[in-house]
Amino acid sequence: MEQEKQLRPPYATSGVADKVLDLFVRMSPKKIDIKFIVENNIATPSNAFRAIDLLRWLGIIDKTGNVKEDLAKKLRLVGDEKNQFLADLIKSSYRELIERVDLSKAKKDDVINFFVHNYNTGNSQAIYSAALFLHLCHKFKIPVSDDLKKKTHTSGVETKKRDKRISDKLRDKISKSEDKFENRSRGSNKYKVSISGENANYDFLINSLSDMEDMETIFAIIKKKLS
Predict the structure, then answer these.
(1) For residue 120, what pLDDT is reported?
(2) How far is CA 227 from the centre of its chain?
(3) Which residues neighbour 156 within 8 Å (Cβ) at sequence distance 6 or greater?
């Protein structure tokens, strides 16, 4: 599906992406906007636009939010047929990236740099965009290099338990230190969270505890910062 030139590469978290692509199984919306995304608990108000960007990028909705019924019908499928449809949709929507970057040999930096060079995105946004793209590749079995598999996603029971332990620790740290959160500007609801280690100290912004759910993206940002 040919991209609209004005579209920006989506950078929703993997959790938001999974929710928004699964919603058509349980409902048949005619139009999807920020209000719909928030009311259906797909994303927080501050992150709802990311879900919209993903749907527009994949061509599931038009620029005014109207759902394309022919695609929505296929998203109501289940099993291998639905997964193959989504794999084809992703390949089409990310066609330029797939044509320019050899995913069978690429490293994660190659994907990040593609977004920086071709869409003039900032470094952090490019990391998010790469993480989303590679999550979709993993979920819908689009072949990528071993390096991308290793550095992009995590899987397995033990890994999920590890991420939950880390998430719980960070949530606990946030809860205990909430009075020390630092607003970047008057009236802002963004909070600065600090992660300190033996050889590094890194700050990042969150809107709420729900933003801590996608640990993969946070790890990607920290890893890029420290590399």
Answers:
(1) 87
(2) 21
(3) none
Q: Which residue has the tokens 């099993």?
A: 79
Nearest CA to 177 among 163, 166, 192? 192
Task: Count Cβ atoms below 10 Å from residue 5 Cβ, excluding itself.
Answer: 5
Q: What is the structure's pLDDT at 22?
A: 94
User: Strands 191-196 and 201-206: what pairing?
Assistant: antiparallel
Q: Which helix (H) or strand (E) holds 202?
A: strand 201-206
Give residue 1's pLDDT. 44
Is 50 exposed, middle or buried (CB count within 10 Å of its CB: 0-12, 13-18, 19+)?
Answer: buried
Q: Which residues pair with 67 in a beta bridge?
A: 61
- Best CA proximity match to 55, nearest among 99, 86, 79: 86
Cβ neighbourhood burial of 130 (10 Å; 0-12, 13-18, 19+): buried
Distance, CA of 163 to CA of 154 (rounded, Å): 9
The pTM assigned to this predicted structure is 0.68
Cβ atoms of residues 96 and 118 within 8 Å: yes
Domains of the chain, residue spans: 14-152, 157-226
Residue pair 182/203 in contact by the 8 Å Cβ criterion: no
pLDDT for 165 equals 55
- Phi/psi at 81 (nearest 5 deg)? -65, -45
Count Cβ atoms below 10 Å from residue 41 Cβ, excluding itself.
Answer: 9
Q: In which residue ranges of the chain is pLDDT below 70?
A: 1-6, 151-227
What is the CB neighbour count within 10 angstroms for residue 93?
Answer: 24
- 104-116, pLDDT tens digit by residue? 999 999 999 999 9
Task: Please give the DSSP secondary-structure letter assigned to residue 181.
Answer: -
